[in-house]
Design goal:
With 326 residues, this protein is of the alpha+beta class. It has helices at residues 2-7, 9-12, 29-40, 70-73, 110-116, 141-146, 185-195, 226-232, 250-257, and strands spanning 17-23, 45-47, 56-63, 78-86, 88-89, 100-101, 122-126, 135-136, 139-140, 156-168, 172-179, 200-210, 213-214, 245-247, 262-263, 292-296, 302-309, 312-318. It folds into two domains: 2-75 and 215-318, no CATH class; 78-204, Pseudouridine synthase, CATH 3.30.2350. 35% of the residues are buried.
Length: 326
């Protein structure tokens, strides 16, 4: 990531970009986006995956037309470190609502917790917390619950790549979890505790990574200037390690910029070889869109996402770069 970022740093000031922000506790994801947007006007900004106010860590903020990549960024695995208070339950599965002690709650240790982890790894059916952003008949579940309604949420299929026990003591246990989009970390702690005859609520949550973006290389947004953000910005290609890619030049590049399809005919219109995705990390899987490839120019800039439909590649997202004046 650092090498690609350094190579494209100058160009990146004149095109779409992504900021890896370390969101502080107590700040909503929207607040963080607004803070960046105020500095980056007139560019529009959006985030690629909400973090609750209680949570800290990696929040990817897409600037300008890189917001078009949000659905593809959602395909990347996310890594969290979470701490849970065991022996209690709550309606929200965290400490935001009243805590209820569990009668005759057993003591927990690392061996005991580790023994039940296999049932929570892989493709699992997970019930979201009652206080969640899941839509229920046109309203968020948390709004219905806060209004006094009883809400029954159906299980949803999510993918958990791995769970590691980091620490266990008489009151809390901590886990590192790598998972796919849509997974509720609160639910994982709750369900692990329930399988051991007790309860648990989440007290701390940090998102340490989204794909190749790590918290160690994130930016705090307090007291930053527009130039600070521009210098730290990452080119959008870094967010697509799970996509095959192709380098375009000449007429093929011109047609792509114009939104025209490329014909797949190696005799009449030869295309360069499609390169495999770099796949950073063992759990960064191929894109869920197997017919998509990332088109790059000679500067290794992302110029488009192409979708293969029969014998043509159609530009679905096209990106332009403004060159600095000489």
């Amino acid at each position: 990531v650092a090498q690609v970022q350094a190579r494209l740093r100058t160009v990146n000031r004149f095109g779409p970009m992504i900021l890896n922000v370390n969101k502080p506790q107590g700040v909503t994801s929207r607040d963080a986006v607004n803070a960046v947007e105020r500095l980056m006007r007139p560019e529009k900004c959006g985030h690629a995956g909400t973090l609750d106010p209680i949570a800290t860590g990696v929040l990817l903020i897409c600037l300008g037309k890189s917001t078009r990549l949000v659905p593809y960024i959602h395909e990347l695995p996310k890594t969290y470190r979470a701490t849970f208070l065991h022996g209690v339950t709550s309606d929200s599965d965290d400490t935001e609502t009243e805590l209820r002690p569990v009668d005759n709650a057993p003591a927990l240790d690392a061996t005991l917790i580790t023994s039940v982890l296999p049932q929570f790894i892989g493709e699992i059916a997970q019930v979201p917390p009652q206080y969640s952003a899941v839509w229920v008949d046109g309203r968020r579940a948390y709004n219905r619950v806060r209004g006094g309604e009883e809400v029954s949420l159906a299980p949803r299929n999510v993918h958990v790549h791995s769970i590691e026990v980091l620490n266990v003591n008489d009151e809390t246990f901590s886990l590192e979890i790598e998972c796919g989009s849509g997974t509720y970390i609160r639910s994982i702690g709750r369900d692990i505790a329930q399988s051991l005859g007790t309860g648990a609520v989440m007290t701390e949550l940090e998102r340490t990574a989204i794909g190749p973006f790590s918290v160690e290389h994130s930016l705090t947004i307090e007291e930053q200037t527009k130039d600070d953000l521009l210098q730290f910005a990452t080119p959008p290609l870094v967010a697509l390690p799970h996509f095959p890619r192709i380098h375009l030049t000449g007429d093929a590049l011109t047609r792509t910029h114009q939104g025209q399809p490329l014909t797949i005919d190696q005799q009449q219109f030869p295309l360069p070889e499609i390169e495999p995705p770099p796949l950073m990390g063992p759990t960064v899987v191929l894109s869920e869109r197997p017919d998509f490839i990332a088109a790059l120019n000679e500067r290794d800039e992302l110029v488009a996402l192409l979708e293969r439909v029969k014998d043509k590649y159609w530009p679905r997202q096209v990106f332009q770069y403004r060159r600095p004046k000489k």
